[in-house]
């Protein structure tokens, strides 16, 4: 029996996190969501995740800070950053992206959403 991919989605925008979870769940991947850093850290310490999806810009700890802390608990998890801004070059230049980040993608536009079947 194949193992299910487990994904933790971390971001302060509940609507975006839920939208991403619905898309990923449609692929039969198991998702958990955390809308605050403390919940993300709690989940990462209590469960094994294959992938962690981070909103790069968040109030308080940004995605890179949360990522660094989660990496201590889950060093093998792949990391994907999403952002509503176009700051990839700035993030790369600042050195805040972790060494094993997988992708940096733009947030989906909520206005363009269509209901999933």
Helix fraction, binned, reads 25-40%
DSSP helix count? 4
Largest sheet, spatial ordering of strands: 2-1-3-4-5
Distance between the termini: 27 Å
Can you characterise this structure?
- This protein has helices at residues 14-25, 37-46, 63-73, 88-94, and strands at 6-10, 30-34, 51-55, 78-83, 101-106.
- It has one domain (6-108): Response regulator (Rossmann fold).
- A five-stranded parallel beta sheet has the order 2-1-3-4-5, sandwiched between helices.
- The relative contact order is 0.19.
- It is globular and about 35 Å long.
- Helix content is 34%, strand content 23%.
- It has 117 residues and is of the alpha/beta class.
Short description:
This protein has 117 residues and is of the alpha/beta class. The chain has helices spanning 14-25, 37-46, 63-73, 88-94; strands at 6-10, 30-34, 51-55, 78-83, 101-106. It is globular, with a radius of gyration of 14 Å.
Topology of this protein?
Layout: E1 6-10, H1 14-25, E2 30-34, H2 37-46, E3 51-55, H3 63-73, E4 78-83, H4 88-94, E5 101-106
Parallel strand pairs: 1-2, 1-3, 3-4, 4-5
What features would you highlight for this structure?
single chain, 117 residues, alpha/beta, Rossmann fold, five-stranded parallel beta sheet, 4 helices, disordered C terminus
């Amino acid at each position: 029996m194949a193992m299910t991919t487990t994904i933790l989605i971390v971001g302060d925008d509940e609507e975006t996190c839920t939208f991403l979870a619905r898309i990923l769940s449609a692929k039969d991947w198991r998702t958990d969501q955390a809308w605050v850093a403390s919940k993300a850290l709690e989940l990462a310490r209590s469960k094994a995740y294959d992938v962690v999806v981070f909103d790069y810009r968040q109030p308080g700890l940004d995605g890179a800070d949360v990522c660094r802390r989660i990496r201590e608990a889950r060093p093998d998890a792949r990391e994907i950053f999403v952002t509503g801004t176009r700051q990839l070059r700035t993030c790369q230049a600042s050195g805040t992206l972790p060494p094993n980040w997988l992708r940096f993608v733009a947030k989906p536009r909520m206005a363009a959403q269509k209901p999933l079947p």
